[in-house]
Design a protein that fits this description.
The protein is α/β, with parallel strands linked by helices and 247 residues long. The protein is built from ten helices and 13 strands.
Length: 247
């Protein structure tokens, strides 16, 4: 009997391959983990409705799903359980930065995303939970980060070396998982987490077994307990084989 109780998996760059699909091999080993008593869920920076919900339904996930880096938690049936928004003043300040320095930006409510050309007319119509920036280059990225650091109460991570994702301070995949584990009476030392980017580091640090993908950023690999194969090589399945089944 394995000691592990729960597996929380990132999507992009982790469970999803280069075609943004979950491979047959990854699906097979997720179900084998469940048969061994290790349930699983997603912890993603993406919105839940639509793309993520489709995969959650296909895999028959029963645990709540963490989306928007922890700003939104959804039931598998599509009910919003928790939502942690940015302040309006923060959104306006980041919009100013984006217009000055970003090559591309996006802003998310709990269920919708607005991009560069549509956001201006929506800024005061919604409550937003995540702001994302793509920089032209490393210098632009550093300038954006410097200005973000001057705005109080923000949590800044990334999903790629040339982007930044911003949530309210204290909001992260790790903190969301900690809360859910407390609710489910699951000790965090029986938790496995798998990811590839800076928005995954909080949950890798939380878990008894934090796994970095082979394609993960160096900072993520540096804090991981285990490094698996790339997302294009069924790295999630290989981590399950090694950690849960000792293969």
């Amino acid at each position: 009997m394995t000691k592990w109780r729960l597996l929380a998996v990132d999507l992009d760059g982790t469970l999803l391959n280069e075609h943004r699909q979950i491979s047959k091999v990854n699906r097979e080993w997720l179900h084998k983990a469940r048969e061994q008593g290790v349930d699983f869920t997603f912890a993603t920076g993406r919105l839940y409705p639509g793309f993520v919900q489709k995969f959650a339904t296909e895999l028959a996930i029963t645990k709540p799903i963490i989306s928007l880096n922890g700003s939104a938690i959804w039931s598998c049936e599509g009910k919003l359980l928790e939502f942690y928004p940015l302040e309006k003043s923060q959104v306006h300040a980041m919009y100013t930065i984006a217009k000055q320095h970003a090559s591309h930006y996006w802003v998310c409510t709990e269920k919708d995303v607005f991009y560069d050309d549509t956001f201006a007319e929506e800024i005061d119509k919604h409550t937003f939970a995540k702001f994302g920036f793509v920089a032209h280059d490393a210098d632009s990225l550093a300038q954006i980060k410097k200005q973000l650091d001057a705005i109080p109460n923000l949590e800044v991570t990334n999903t790629h070396p040339l982007n930044l994702e911003v949530n309210p301070q204290g909001i992260s995949k790790g903190n969301a998982l900690r809360t859910l584990c407390q609710q489910w009476n699951i000790p965090t030392d029986t938790l496995i987490t798998i990811g590839d980017s800076l928005n995954d580091t909080s949950m890798l640090k939380l878990a008894g077994m934090g796994v970095a993908m082979g394609n993960a950023q160096d900072e993520v690999k540096a804090i991981a307990n285990h490094i698996t194969s790339n997302n294009t090589e069924d790295g999630v399945a290989k981590a399950i084989q090694t950690i849960i089944f000792s293969l």
